[in-house]
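Model: You mentioned two targets. I'll fold them one after the other.
Researcher: Yes, keep them separate.
Model: Target one:
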Amino acid sequence: MEEIKNLAERIVFYLEDGDNVYDRILITEYLGGQSFKENVLEGIDSRILEKRAQILERDDIFLAKLNSDVERLYSRFVEGVDEDRNNRYNPVTFHVHGMKFAPNGGRDDVTKFDDATFNLKADNSIFVQAWFDIEATCTTTSGNSDALKYDQVRIESIRDWDDYANILPQARWVNAQRDRQDGLDSVFSFSETMEAGLYQRMYN
């Protein structure tokens, strides 16, 4: 972790204890391409370069951009709850969704799911922490960058398992799940339940 801190301007997520595809997810933030070049690609001493090589060998690494549409289209899903200290939102867990859209309209199908469920999620204290649009696949442990070329990675928080259980039997949720399933490549898309060692809500 210390070596990664030296390479990043800010660590915004450190999620762990995944039980499906990834056992940990680390997301670091840079102000832009020039900042990434100066901090990561240039002027790094040999010790950090060696550590970085070790990281690249064992992890999948992606370059992504924070999605801005979710804040514009689904403001309730982003807002969260009252910021008053006595009512502070303390999520019990996080859902991480790696999404590879199916060809021929998959993204539109997932949008139908989002349109149908964002209020239902917000009503049950499930909120967006960040949606990331994947710009490039840098390295993968499998060596198959095409297979892991996710279109989007979403991080959403759950306040309580009872809240999540409330939405599962509702007809709106059940019907919308069909659109989500139709819209995703089921081979490469994934969902993880993870715990947060560190997280930063990315929207104002």
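Model: Target two:
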Amino acid sequence: MPSRYAAELTQLHADVATLIADAKGRDGADRSEALQRAQDMLAEEPDVFEMCEMEATTVETQDQLTEYRQTADNLRKQLADEIAGANRSELFDGGTMLEPKKNSQFAELDAIKQKSKNSTNELRKALQQLDETEQVSADTLKELHRQRQTLENIDSQAVSYTHLTLPTKRIV
């Protein structure tokens, strides 16, 4: 059963694909608007994908992540092709076509992606440490319980020994 984030990611991919397909049949500002919406939606994709990554715990879910990544890459290529395929009048008609991104924006995006990946890795390590700590704590608790039983056993033996020795002291 797919997670909420996996379902959201699948829906996002389907919506972007629909917008790209719709843009092919449009001209001018309508085409630009559809492509801009598709681009905006794809900008949200890495966040949803990251949430899916955090939930991925099995080989099957890791394979699904690979498919999601390929789908997103294909959608980005299709979107870039549609933007590049815009006619000359759209490109120069008062900026209705998507504005080109600056290199600094790409560098900033790459830095954010890297930071996000690092954060995800740190979270995974922290979860692993928590699991290890929980196991050590459970083992320690078992050992403490065993020691308590030993001490209680010693205490009960000491009490019975005391009861045996009291009559002997009276005789002496």
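Researcher: Noted. Anything on target two?
Model: The CA atoms of residues 15 and 38 lie 8 Å apart.
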